[in-house]
């Protein structure tokens, strides 16, 4: 399943095509589990505020990644007072998501070191 | 805001309405006692001992009245301050209550809980930090809701495109 997803990714199959925004979210979720608001916060913190992602952009991206099977989510344990009793929804990369990210990273580092013959 | 809620609960427990009712009862009791004793006094039906008893009861009622009046004044002052505080530092903005919440009902239950929860968390943070005036917070919330509406459409569009794609495959 993971290999298939990766293969599709490499072939440029639209089902697993990863947009730059999606890649950014996946990078933020790499090896950790975050809830919606923490993702733009992580992006802004790491880029010193140069890169920003609004909630309106984030949700369609997360939705799309979930549909592609690259990200999975679960509800937090209990409703919180500061959220009007609503629970937090936590996201993390699936196995396919992690494989796809590793593949992207290795492609980038290979491209950085590539020299013409 | 938690403190305001605690004060509000405390005021509720101290029962302003009940105290007001008690004060009205004392006033009418006092008036009745006064007119009855005056009438009996005029008719010469009260001896010195009874008059003394009436006076003592009257003083007791007056003391109780003064005590109730001062506690009511203090409680009403506190209530007034609390009202002012709540108008300056509300628990929830009108934009979240009257715009975001009704619009969120366009979403399914899962998205509603997540999106409204996130929006409310951001709102609470802005209210707590007290960094922006209320009108600006309302404006920010309205802007976010507009952006969220657009993202709802985007999500729906992606879903329908994917469904068509699956069908053609």
Helix content of chain B: over 70%
The proportion of residues forming helix of chain A, as a percent range, comes to 40-55%
Contiguous helical run count of chain B:
6
Strand content of chain A: 5-15%
Low-confidence stretches of chain B: none
Summarize, please.
With 117 residues, chain A is mainly α. Chain A contains five helices and three strands, in the order H-H-E-H-H-E-E-H. In chain A, helix 1 packs across helix 5 and helix 2 crosses helix 3.
Ordered list of secondary-structure elements with their pairings:
The complex is a heterodimer of chains A (117) and B (169).
Chain A: H1 2-11, H2 20-29, E1 34-35, H3 38-46, H4 55-68, E2 71-75, E3 89-93, H5 95-113
Antiparallel strand pairs in A: 1-3, 2-3
Chain B: H1 2-14, H2 16-43, H3 48-88, H4 94-104, H5 109-129, H6 134-168
Helix pairs in contact in B: 1-3, 2-3, 4-5, 4-6, 5-6
What does this structure look like?
Chain A is mainly alpha-helical and 117 residues long. Helices cover 53% and strands 10% of the residues of chain A. Chain A is built from 5 helices and 3 strands; from the N terminus they run ααβααββα. In chain A, strands 1-3-2 form a 3-stranded antiparallel β-sheet. Chain A is elongated and about 60 Å long. Chain B contains 6 helices and no strands. Chain B has helices at 2-14, 16-43, 48-88, 94-104, 109-129, 134-168. In chain B, α1 (2-14) runs antiparallel to α3 (48-88). Chain B is rod-shaped and about 110 Å long.
Essential attributes:
heterodimer, A: 117 residues, mainly alpha, 3-stranded antiparallel beta sheet, 5 helices, elongated, disordered N terminus, B: 169 residues, rod-shaped
């Amino acid at each position: 399943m993971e290999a298939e997803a990766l293969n599709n990714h490499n072939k440029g199959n639209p089902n697993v095509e990863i947009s730059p925004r999606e890649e950014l979210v996946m990078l933020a979720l790499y090896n950790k589990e975050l809830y919606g608001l923490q993702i733009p916060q992580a992006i802004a913190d790491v880029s010193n505020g140069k890169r920003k992602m609004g909630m309106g952009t984030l949700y369609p991206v997360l939705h799309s990644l979930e549909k592609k099977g690259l990200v999975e989510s679960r509800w937090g344990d209990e409703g919180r007072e500061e959220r009007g009793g609503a629970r937090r929804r936590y996201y993390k990369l699936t196995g396919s998501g992690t494989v796809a990210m590793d593949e992207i990273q290795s492609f980038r580092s290979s491209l950085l070191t590539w020299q013409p013959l | 805001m938690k403190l305001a809620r605690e004060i509000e609960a405390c005021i509720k427990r101290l029962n302003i309405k009940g105290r007001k009712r008690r004060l009205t009862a004392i006033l009418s009791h006092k008036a009745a006692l006064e007119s009855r004793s005056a009438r009996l006094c005029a008719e010469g039906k009260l001896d010195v001992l009874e008059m003394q008893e009436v006076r003592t009861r009257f003083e007791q009622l007056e003391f109780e009245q003064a005590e109730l009046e001062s506690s009511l004044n203090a409680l009403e002052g506190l209530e007034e301050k609390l009202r002012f505080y709540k108008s300056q530092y509300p628990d929830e903005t009108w934009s979240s209550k009257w715009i975001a919440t009704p619009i969120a009902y366009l979403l399914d239950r899962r998205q509603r809980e997540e999106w409204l929860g996130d929006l409310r968390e951001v709102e609470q943070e802005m209210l707590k930090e007290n960094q922006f005036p209320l009108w600006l917070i309302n404006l920010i919330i309205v802007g976010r809701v507009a952006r969220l509406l657009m993202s709802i459409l985007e999500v729906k569009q992606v879903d329908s495109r994917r469904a068509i794609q699956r069908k053609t495959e």
